[in-house]
Structure prediction request, 236 residues.
Amino acid sequence: MDWRYAFGELTIVTVGVLIALGVDQWNSDRLASLEEATYLSRLISDIDDDIIGLEYQIAAVDQKQESLFRVADQLRSGLVLDHLQFFQDIVIGANYGWNQDTASSATYDDLIGSGNFGLINNHGIRILITDYYDSFEGGNNRIEERETDYPKLTYELIPRATTDGDDGVVWERSVQPNLPPDRIEEIYQDILDSNLKALTTAEANFGRFVTAISVSQLEQAKALRKILADYLGTLD
Prediction:
């Protein structure tokens, strides 16, 4: 009877240990799933920021292209009726000529830096996330390679006003106000004596390229956002 009793106790202990291990594993899996969901939500939020930024950028570059068209037309015809508006179009034509917005990568950088990228269980989705950030950076690098001297020249030619944006950034998107007539004439003559006409064509080509890259980035951002949101829904 003693050995049967001992065996029964051993069985109870073994079963208890297995149950405890199972509970621990369940808790571990549950915590990992919660972390995965948190990271996915953060990634979606970052991509939402990218989408907003890209949509704004595409609209701003459209405005840039319209301004460059007017500048090129007036330089070609030599007919400038409103010098200050002409100057303003030149300034707007420089928008997004200096640098481009980068992808919002705080969550992705955290995942890579912490070694937690594996918490995203779906291997295919991990590949898509990596491709997105690599592609975004690659697109910006291609844009940077094509930057022209137009923005720098306009910065040298036209005095600008500074304004504080709601985001705390200082902007220089407007011509300095209250320019005296003789200064306006001087600026206009400097423009005619410069290489701005040729650079306007180059900057317009550059703007079209920026739009093409931005549209591609936007499409990829929207597609990845949907995939992540759908996958997150399966974790609920």
